[in-house]
Structure formats: structure tokens, C-alpha cells
């Protein structure tokens, strides 16, 4: 029996439970306020925001922020820990905003194995025989859910800062994180519309839309909340950029070669939508370098009717799949190397190494 492993898992589980509790308490308080404003608003909009936020997710971003706070000198048993937990938990509401709005922009029918927010409200509109277009109604409700989640994220974070010693630096990171999410989403939408297939664009989208927001900035936020020194911040941010990029590349592989039951999203959806991913961009380049006209023609029709299964086979045959697998391993290893020399809590260090190991492991 590995008692060390069990001890680490118990510690991480405890951190997640504490973050979940902070999030739940805040959301239930805001839900009661919303119900007092209007019963329907509380039930159908605020209630949807609360249900979506609490119903799924691994709390990875808030956990990383908590680890950043601990790495930066925060005391998990100290008087400021409660405020730190609430500030870290606010990231989950930004995640709600990002996912709900992303599903509207992509027209995704499912999320986490269930109907997406806009799809659920479209079906509700049709079942109740409401007037107007079901799609416009569903998308409007989803936009409002995402907007409310973003408003509450700011409220939750600002309220928590009253109990922290370094609010100014944390606010600057929070502002940067929110703006970078929008920049990444913009680049993603524009690249898809313009049928951009460059590897540089794919990596830029990965950095701003996922790596920064999912790993780098949460760690940075927590460290800033604790007043960490520059060397610690630089090391954590470097780790976050590398591992966060690998995290997205791994997700791209799962989107093409994974299992819907595991991912909660239809396999091949990125291909059908014509997403600019490194996997696709590398395939386009490799097909051109090899003079493979059939593959080039097939990949030129990605997002315009190309069969996702045929595209997946072509990317595998061209070597794009192996290229992305290798890039994941390289980035994960480089990210772990950036932690060398940091004086980190053993549970935090093991957690960061474990995340890097997962992102560097072939998912399919």
C-alpha cells in the first residue's frame, strides 16, 4: 500500500472540497438574493448559472490558484485562508462564462455529456410553445447565463480581496486573465472564419485561450495574492505556459481520436467546425512537404464537409498525430524542469508534477 500516494490524494481531495465549499456557499447566497429580485430570474437564470457551475468540472483552475497561493507563502491554516479559498473559487465562475459562451459560438449541442445551456433552453422553448425562434431564445438565455457568471466572478473575487494582504497585485493578474480569455476566443473565431491553417496561429490561440487561462494565470493569481517573490512567480508562470499548452494539445487529440463518453463532447467536432489546431495545421504543412495532393485536398475541406474520420486517418498517416504527441511530452518535461530550485510544499510539488505527467501522456 502506497501511504505517501494516499496521503497526497487525501490532501488534494481536501483542497478541492474546501474550494467547492467556498464556491457553494457564495453561489447559494447569490441565488437567494436573485430569487428576491424576481422569482423567474432566480429560477431560470441565476438558478441555471448555479446548477451549471456546481454540476461538473474538476476545479482544476481554482486548485492551481490555491497551489500558487501556497507556493507564494500563503498559510493554508492561517486567518487569510478563507478569503484565499473564495478568491480562488471565483475562477470557476469565469469557467462557466467561457464554456457557456463557447458552446453558443460553436453551436455545440452538448457539454459534459448533457445538453449545453443554449440547447436545453431551445428545447424548453419548443416544449412550452413560446413565440419566436427557439434558437434565438436559447442562445439569448445562454448569453445571459454567461454574463451573470462573469459578473458574479468579479463580485466573488473582489469581496475576497478584503481579507487578503496583497490585493493590488492580485487585481492586476485578474484583469489580465479576463482580457486574455477574450483575446484567445477572438483569435479562435477569426482563425476559424478565415480558414487559417498556420501553426503559429494555432499555438497563439492555445496560449491565450487555454494555457494562460487554465494553468499559467491561476498559478500567477494565487502567487500574487500571497505576495510571492519574482523568481517564484516566473517559475510558476513558465510552468503554466508549457503545461497549459500541452493540456490544450492533448485536448485536441482527444477531440479527434478520443471517446465521446469520456470527453462529453462529440468526437470530430473540431474537424467539422474547422478549428485551427496544431494537429490540423501540422497536417496541412506535412501534406504540402510530401506532395500528398489527396491529403492536401482533404484537409482543405476541413470545416466545409470533409469527413472527420477520413481527416483523422489522414492526420495519423501524415505524422501530425505523432508530432503533437511528441510536443506534449516535450512541453510537459520542460514545465516540470522550471520547478527545480523552488521551495514548494511537497503536496503542491507533487500535484504540479502529476498534472504535467498527465498532460505529457498520450491520451489516445
UniProtKB/TrEMBL annotation:
Name of the featured protein: Polyprenyl synthetase family protein
InterPro entries associated with the record: Isoprenoid_synthase_dom_sf (IPR008949), Polyprenyl_synt (IPR000092), Polyprenyl_synt_CS (IPR033749)
Gene3D superfamilies in the record: Farnesyl Diphosphate Synthase (1.10.600.10)
Chain spans, region Disordered: 107-134
Transmembrane domains' residue ranges: none
Compositionally biased region (Basic and acidic residues): 121-134
Cofactor(s) required, per the database record: Mg(2+)
Top-level division of the source organism's lineage: Bacteria
Family assignment from sequence similarity: Belongs to the FPP/GGPP synthase family.
Keywords for the protein's UniProt record, in alphabetical order: Magnesium, Metal-binding, Transferase
Basic residues biased stretches: 111-120
Pfam family for this entry, one: polyprenyl_synt
Xref: PROSITE patterns: POLYPRENYL_SYNTHASE_1, POLYPRENYL_SYNTHASE_2
Organism annotation: Streptomonospora nanhaiensis
Amino acid at each position: 500500500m502506497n501511504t505517501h500516494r494516499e496521503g497526497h490524494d487525501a490532501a488534494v481531495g481536501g483542497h478541492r472540497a474546501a474550494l467547492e465549499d467556498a464556491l457553494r456557499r457564495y453561489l447559494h447566497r447569490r441565488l437567494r438574493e436573485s430569487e428576491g429580485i424576481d422569482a423567474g430570474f432566480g429560477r431560470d437564470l441565476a438558478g441555471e448559472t448555479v446548477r451549471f457551475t456546481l454540476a461538473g468540472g474538476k476545479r482544476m483552475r481554482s486548485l492551481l490558484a490555491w497551489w500558487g497561493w501556497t507556493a507564494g507563502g500563503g498559510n493554508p491554516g492561517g486567518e487569510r485562508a478563507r478569503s484565499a479559498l473564495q478568491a480562488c473559487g471565483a475562477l470557476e465562475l469565469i469557467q462557466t462564462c467561457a464554456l457557456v459562451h463557447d458552446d453558443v459560438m460553436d453551436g455545440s449541442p452538448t457539454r459534459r455529456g448533457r445538453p449545453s445551456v443554449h440547447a436545453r433552453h431551445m428545447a424548453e422553448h419548443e416544449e412550452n410553445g413560446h413565440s419566436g425562434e427557439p434558437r434565438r431564445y436559447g442562445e439569448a438565455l445562454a448569453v445571459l447565463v454567461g454574463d451573470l457568471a462573469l459578473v458574479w466572478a468579479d463580485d466573488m473575487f473582489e469581496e475576497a480581496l478584503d481579507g487578503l494582504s496583497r490585493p493590488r497585485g492580485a487585481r492586476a493578474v485578474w484583469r489580465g486573465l479576463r482580457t486574455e480569455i477574450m483575446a484567445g476566443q477572438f483569435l479562435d473565431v477569426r482563425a476559424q472564419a478565415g480558414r487559417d491553417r498556420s501553426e503559429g496561429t494555432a499555438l497563439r490561440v492555445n496560449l491565450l485561450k487555454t494555457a494562460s487561462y487554465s494553468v499559467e494565470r491561476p498559478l500567477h493569481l494565487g502567487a500574487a495574492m500571497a505576495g510571492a517573490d519574482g523568481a517564484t512567480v516566473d517559475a510558476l508562470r513558465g510552468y503554466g505556459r508549457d503545461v497549459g499548452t500541452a493540456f490544450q494539445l492533448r485536448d485536441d487529440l482527444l477531440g479527434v481520436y478520443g471517446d465521446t463518453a469520456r470527453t462529453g463532447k462529440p468526437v470530430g467536432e473540431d474537424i467539422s467546425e474547422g478549428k485551427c489546431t496544431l494537429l490540423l495545421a501540422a497536417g496541412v504543412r506535412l501534406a504540402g512537404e510530401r506532395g500528398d495532393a489527396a491529403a492536401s485536398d482533404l484537409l482543405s475541406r476541413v470545416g466545409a464537409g470533409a469527413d472527420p474520420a477520413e481527416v483523422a486517418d489522414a492526420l495519423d498517416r501524415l505524422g501530425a498525430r505523432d508530432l503533437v504527441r511528441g510536443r506534449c511530452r516535450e512541453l510537459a518535461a520542460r514545465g516540470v524542469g522550471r520547478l527545480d530550485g523552488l521551495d514548494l510544499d511537497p503536496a503542491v510539488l507533487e500535484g504540479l508534477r502529476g498534472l504535467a505527467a498527465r498532460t505529457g501522456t498520450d491520451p489516445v
